[in-house]
């Protein structure tokens, strides 16, 4: 397996480790990027607890909250270039699809694609996307969507970076007064701190075991005695939970408070028990590798379009 400079650069970007360490890890992992990350972590050379995806695809993430705040949705609409992502018609399509997702009964993308398009009932969602592809000369796809509903409580949203990150949060509470402020803070937290799970109960057991093995190998590599290794492993697992579980994360506005404590304080202040029930965080293009276009060819493509 030939280890290219591009692979080394990507691994360095994802882990923060040195170039030579990245090259050695990739060689040991025979080019497997995820395995190389594990190797670097075991050696204590990469601190990342989260599995970062390659974010390269263009497009937009968009949200829509139905009046009353009881239903909301978030969608990701992809395209090939940033040029098209800034096109008014593409932006309008993304907004319409977010509204469609919120009002739809569909649970899967394929189902929603066959529905009548909310902005023109003479065509389906699939046909609306196809028509814009033909007009702008660039491939597009509705990649995913998430919809939340709540009876007693509130759905809130937040969009960051002009459509780069979109967050949807579902809070449950008997009283709605003051709930919007709490929901906004939780949405900001999700956008900034990128939690992977609501709380530790949602972390798969196999993920925990994988983390433990990495921490155990780190301790061995550090030359720690056997009798203290398990204590170190347990301590590092607790730290992992604080990094990836929303309710255990330090609140971005006050690091002395966890999100769980922040919500508990707000529940007492507002006189109603507040529960963070669900959240969704979509980052444009996460996990998608975009093919590298020649710049001149890309400009010519846009000119022809």
Question: Number of helical runs?
Answer: 12
**Rg estimate, integer Å:** 22 Å
Going by helix content, strand content and strand pairing, the class is alpha+beta
> Using DSSP, what is the number of strands?
10
* Uncertain spans: 47-56, 291-296
Query: Tell me about the biggest sheet?
Result: 3 strands, antiparallel
Main sheet strand line-up:
1-2-5
Name the shape in a single word. flat
Distance between the termini: 40 Å
Q: Order of SSEs, N→C?
A: HHHEEHHHEEHEEEHHHEEHEH
The top level CATH class name of the domain at 58-196 and 279-304: Alpha Beta
Can you tell me the CATH topology of the domain at 58-196 and 279-304?
Answer: Tetrahydropterin Synthase, Chain A
Per CATH, the superfamily of the domain at 58-196 and 279-304 is Elongation factor Ts, dimerisation domain
Instruction: Name the beta content range.
Output: 15-25%
| CATH architectural designation of the domain at 58-196 and 279-304 | 2-Layer Sandwich
Residue-averaged pLDDT = 87
Protein name: Elongation factor Ts
Main location: cytoplasm
Pfam families: EF_TS
Organism: Fervidicella metallireducens AeB
């Amino acid at each position: 397996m030939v280890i290219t400079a591009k692979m080394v650069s990507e691994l360095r970007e994802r882990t923060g480790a040195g170039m030579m360490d990245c090259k050695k890890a990739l060689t040991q992992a025979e080019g497997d990027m995820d395995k190389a990350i594990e190797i670097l972590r075991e050696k204590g050379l990469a601190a990342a607890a989260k599995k970062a995806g390659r974010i390269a695809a263009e497009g937009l993430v968009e949200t829509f909250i139905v009046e009353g705040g009881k239903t909301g949705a978030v969608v990701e609409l992809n395209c090939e270039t940033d040029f098209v992502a800034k096109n008014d018609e593409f932006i309008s399509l993304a907004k319409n699809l977010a509204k469609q997702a919120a009002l739809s009964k569909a649970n899967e993308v394929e189902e929603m694609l066959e529905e009548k398009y909310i902005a023109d009932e003479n065509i389906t969602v699939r046909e609306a996307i196809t028509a814009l592809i033909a007009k702008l000369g660039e491939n597009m796809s509705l990649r995913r969507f998430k919809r939340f509903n709540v009876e007693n409580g509130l759905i809130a949203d937040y969009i960051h970076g002009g459509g780069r990150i979109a967050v949807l949060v579902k809070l449950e509470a008997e009283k709605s007064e003051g709930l919007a402020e709490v929901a906004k803070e939780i949405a900001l937290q999700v956008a900034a701190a990128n939690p992977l799970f609501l709380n530790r109960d949602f972390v798969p057991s196999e993920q925990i075991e994988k983390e433990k093995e990495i921490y155990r190998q780190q301790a061995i590599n550090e030359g720690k005695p056997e009798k203290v290794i398990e204590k170190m492993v347990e301590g590092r697992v607790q730290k992992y939970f604080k990094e990836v579980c929303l309710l255990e994360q330090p609140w971005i506005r006050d690091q002395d408070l966890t999100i769980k404590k922040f919500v508990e304080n707000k529940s007492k202040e507002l006189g109603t028990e507040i529960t963070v029930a669900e959240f969704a965080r979509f980052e444009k293009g996460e996990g998608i590798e975009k093919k590298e276009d020649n710049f001149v060819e890309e400009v010519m493509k846009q000119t022809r379009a």
